[in-house]
């Protein structure tokens, strides 16, 4: 299964749409701060959460089961992601999730803690502390194995981010 993970697109629905069309993923996760009407988000299989800049009535956090894995999705601003990833990891563990997708910091992260994989795709439009905007693609493999790649909005691979990981499976 191929999962596209984006965050912090801050109103650029056209860019989100072009990335979705190019990547042809089985599922889209938007980690918040989409900053448009909900109707401007792509149609199709989608998990979306509200960020600190969103006004639409979407959940603050969500759980999604796909590709043999349980995902926990949150923007992260209410879980202090700027100072520590422990609160979101604990929240994931409480609910049996092996993969956490979050945003808010505008900085791409792919970090494993125990058997929980924490992914921040970065910002699609406004990176902070990283040289380019970014998004992530997660592909499930056999059993507990997943591969994560990071890309620029034009689709170019960012080789210094991502990798192959073994995470808690469903």
UniProtKB/TrEMBL annotation:
Pfam family, one: Metallophos_2
UniProt cofactor(s): a divalent metal cation
InterPro entries assigned: Calcineurin-like_PHP_lpxH, Metallo-depent_PP-like, Phosphodiesterase_MJ0936/Vps29
EC assignment: 3.1.4.-
SUPFAM superfamilies hit by this protein: Metallo-dependent phosphatases
Domain annotation Calcineurin-like phosphoesterase: ranges: 1-141
A molecular function GO annotation: metal ion binding
Keywords: Metal-binding
Name this protein carries in UniProt: Phosphoesterase
Species name: Melghirimyces profundicolus
